[in-house]
Each structure stands twice: as C-alpha cells, then as structure tokens.
UniProtKB/TrEMBL annotation:
GO terms for cellular component: 90S preribosome; nucleus. The lineage of its organism: Eukaryota, Fungi, Dikarya, Basidiomycota, Agaricomycotina. Residues 69-87 have a biased composition (Basic residues). This is Protein cms1. It comes from Galerina marginata (strain CBS 339.88). InterPro entries: Cms1. Residues 19-90 are annotated as: Disordered. It comes from the Eukaryota. Residues 22-56 have a biased composition (Acidic residues).
Length: 309
C-alpha cells in the first residue's frame, strides 16, 4: 500500500534534516559557499588575456596594437559586468530584527542579494529577468502580533495579513494536486510542524482541502506523485528539494490555483542560519522552485504573491 504525503501521525518525530537529502541528490545544482559567490571564470580569463598579450607583444605583426586594444576593451566590459553583479549583491543593507518584518522594497533587495549567490555566472541583465518584483512581495508589516513571528502566531498572521489566502484555504480546490499555498521550509521536522498548524479549522473551515507535507525522508517521489494526483489540497508544505522535483520532473503538483508562496525565513537551524542562508536550500529555492517556468510566470504576472514569514 502506498503511503501518502499526509500519512504521518501528528506525534510522529522525525530527525531534522535540511531539505537537501535522500532522493533529492542534485544533478545540476551547484553548491556555493558565501565566499565563492563572486569568484567566476572572468578572473581566470583576465589572466589568460594578459598572458596572450605578452606573447603577442613579443611577436611581429601589424595587428598587434589592434588586438591589444580589443583585449583591453573586453577586460573593461568584464570588470563592468562584475561590478554590476556586486552592486546587486550588496543592494540589501543589513536589516536589524526580523528580516521578514520589513517593507516590500527592503525584502525585494534582500531576495535579489540572495539570488545573486545562487546564479554567480549570470549577467546583471539575466539576473534582472529572474528577479522577484517588489509588487509581487506581500506587505505584511501591518501585522504586529503579540510576539515575534513563530508557528504559534502563523494562524493569526494569515488571518490578519493575508485575508485573501485565508479565504482560499477555506475553499476546496477544483483540481487534484493544485494548492493555493506553497509553504517552503528547510527541514522535514519543520515541514511536519507547519503542516499541523495549517490544518487549523480556523483556516480550513469545513470545506478546506488537505494539507500535504512533502519531503524526501520516508517518502519516495512516486508516493507523493500518487498522493497528489488523487487528492484535492489547499496547501502544500515542503522542502525546496522535494517541491522542486515535483514541479520540474512530474506533472503531479499543479500551480493553476497557486496564489501565495510563503518562505519560512524566521526559523533558523542549529547554526543560526535561515532558509536562504543555507547554500543548499537557497540554491534549490531559486533554481528549482522560484525559477520554475509556471511559478515565475505567475509571480511576474501578479497572480502569485511571495510572503516572507
């Protein structure tokens, strides 16, 4: 008997893992340390250009000066492109307190500064095509709450900051495997905890769809595919590795009803890193989830809001 994505008992305890595990072994994702962000082949190319320059300088030919001028011009363009990328990465100044509790403009700059780290070899123009626009980032500063952003406050946060999401969560989806909410968390245990909170009757009402928990440990990809194809879900909570595979390698996770993507930014791991400060999960989010053709299109067209919680 196949085990579905929502078959874990509420009191089932899992070993905490980052999203990148099990059958989510990457084939195309490049893992980067923060200090490697701006190290690319441009530096090596500059060194090669200088060597070529010296070699040609020792040879005879009427085109030497012209070739040297072209090489200098090319190096200047390379430096200019790298400077633009550095500027993007430094766009977000350090934000005191909770990153998530900032205005959309600050959050947009923060997201692009993280995005640069996942795409170090793209030009500034290419990065701009992938950028999450400020208009697509939900304004949640109106929620002050009785305490800091935590799972204890998630239901109240959605009720007061995202009323349209609360309404949609209380309605059953028309299609199987088509959630209105994608909630991205960095670890399996965190996914299980969030799933329990989102099953709250205050959010779901009597008609709300199921809440799927999607991560690699204990569940094969095929099991989640089977579950999603036979189940109407209102929310899908998952690790970026599993969500990315479902979005890009199967047709089981349908984004036709998607209206919100919540990034679980406030939660930090044992090393005090949030979701986007862990290189593996950051790369999976930007390269496989937010870079999915249909997801990115929905964000660009204003149909999907990105929420930092």
């Amino acid at each position: 008997m196949n085990q579905g994505g929502d078959d874990l008992d509420d009191d089932f305890v899992l070993d905490e893992i980052v999203a990148f595990s099990g059958d989510e072994e990457p084939e195309t994702i490049t893992r980067l340390d923060d200090e490697d962000v701006f190290v690319d082949h441009d530096d090596e190319q500059e060194g090669e250009d200088e060597e070529d320059e010296n070699e040609e300088g020792n040879g005879a030919g009427i085109n030497v000066d012209s070739n040297l001028a072209k090489k200098r011009k090319r190096r200047e363009k390379v430096k200019e492109r790298k400077a633009k990328k550095r500027k993007l990465a430094e766009a977000a100044e350090p934000i005191p307190g909770s990153i998530a509790a900032q205005m959309p403009h600050a959050l947009a700059n923060y997201l692009v500064s993280m995005q640069v780290k996942s795409f170090p070899n793209l030009s500034a123009l290419e990065l701009d095509d992938l950028r999450i626009p400020e208009s697509a980032i939900a304004q949640t500063t109106i929620w002050t709450g009785p305490g800091p952003r935590s799972l204890d406050q998630l239901v109240d946060f959605i009720m007061k900051s995202l009323p349209s999401l609360r309404l949609r969560l209380s309605q059953r989806s028309k299609s199987n495997g088509a959630p209105t909410l994608l909630y991205i968390a960095g670890a399996a245990l965190r996914v299980a905890d969030v799933t329990r909170v989102l099953k709250n009757k205050t959010l779901q009402g009597d008609k709300g769809g199921d809440v799927a928990k999607l991560f690699a440990k204990h569940f094969k990809l095929a099991q989640h595919v089977t579950y999603l194809k036979r189940t109407k879900i209102g929310a899908a909570v998952g690790t970026p590795g599993r969500l990315g595979k479902l979005l890009n390698e199967t047709d089981a996770l349908n984004v036709s009803a998607l209206s919100h993507i919540i990034l679980d930014i406030t939660y930090k791991d044992a090393k005090n890193r949030n979701l986007l400060e862990i290189p593996e999960t950051r790369d999976e989010i930007f390269q496989t989830v937010l870079n999915n053709e249909h997801v990115l299109k929905g964000i660009k067209e204003g149909k999907v809001q990105v929420v930092l919680f």
